[in-house]
Amino acid sequence: MPFLSDRRAPSRRDVLKTAAAAGIGLITGAAAHGFLYERHQIEVTRETLRVSGLPDAHGGLRIGFLSDIHRSQTVPHAMIDTAVRLLMAERPDLIVLGGDYVTWGDRRYVAASAEALAPLSAPHGVFAVLGNHDDDRDMPAALTARGFAVLRDARTQVAIRNEPLDFVGIRFWTRRVEDLTRLLRGASSNVILLAHTPKRLIEAAALSVPLMLSGHTHGGQIVLPGVGAFAAREFPVVAGSGRRDNTAVFVSRGIGTVYLPIRLNCPPEVAVLTLQPLQSF
After folding, report:
1. Beta strand spans in the chain (E)
2. Torsion angle in degrees (nearest 10) through CA of 21, 25, 28, 31
């Protein structure tokens, strides 16, 4: 006589409930990993950027790049201190700070953010722009007090190996080609544009700016397998290097977080960028 089981086959509803429970478990586990672990694991990204018109004298120039510090209740001093120490260990020739030193303009952390960054130094200086989370008075004053050159719709020039290098830093809301044209007027052909948002790549390319450095995107902060950085799809480059016409760009994943103190498949980074002429292969 055949064996008869009184166990019924799982219904479609049972299967869906089990799948939902598994999905919730995966999401919860990923969120916990992103909160407890990944957002603290700062990576050092070393990349070579090919820059149009770069003089041979600037070949091999190394730029340290930090962005999106977001000093806050969920981004402590120790995390920024780690990023600073990692960057200083690389001994860059100059340093760029890409904005968003605090979150939502929280003045309680302005001095703390600047203090955490204070150990930064480089032979050719430290240059900074503001992000959309920064106020226009206290934050630039705090950075300037630490010896950093804060560029707010301004240009400055340094001589490196007897060749000029111009830095143009723009405010987050400066976007018109005419405004950039005004800032570039009189600059050398060797220009680096510091723009918090990579959306300015369109204007930079229209004006044949050789190189632009940006942050703002956090690399998407939460990058889902098969989906990507959903929250950052509006940007021409979400993270890392890219190019539009004659303009090279690098977009930092940043250090801190915003909205949710979680990173998933998108660790924070300290970038060290080595410049080489475009034609040097």
Report:
1. 43-51, 62-66, 94-97, 126-128, 149-150, 154-160, 163-170, 191-195, 211-214, 240-244, 247-251, 269-277
2. -130
Residue type, 276: Q
- Domain edges within the chain: 41-277
Selected from 1.20.190.20, 3.30.2130.10, 3.60.21.10, 1.10.8.60, the CATH number assigned to the domain covering 41-277 reads 3.60.21.10
Q: How far apart are the first and last CA of the chain?
A: 79
DSSP string, 183-238: HHTT--S-EEEEESSGGGHHHHHHTT-SEEEE-SSGGGSB-BTTTB-GGGTTSS-S
CA angle, 96 as apex, 203 and 248 as ends, to 5°? 40
**pTM of the full structure:** 0.87
Residue 48, strand partner residues: 274
Give the three-class secondary structure for 90.
helix
Per-residue pLDDT tens digits for 195-245? 999 999 999 999 999 999 999 999 999 998 888 887 777 999 999 999 999
Q: Distances in Å between the alpha carbon of 66 and those of 12, 81, 88, 183?
A: 51, 12, 11, 23
Between helices 77-90 and 110-117, what is the axis angle to 10°? Answer: 30
In whole angstroms, what is the distance from residue 194 CA to residue 249 CA? 10
The span from the CA of 151 to the CA of 256, in Å, is 22
Burial class from Cβ neighbours inside 10 Å (0-12, 13-18, 19+) for residue 117 reads buried
Helix axes 110-117, 138-145, angle to 10 degrees: 30
Distance CA 236, CA 2 (A): 66
Residues constituting the chain: 281
The set of residues, in sequence order, having a beta carbon less than 8 Å from that of 200 and lying 6+ positions away, is 170, 175, 180, 193, 212, 214
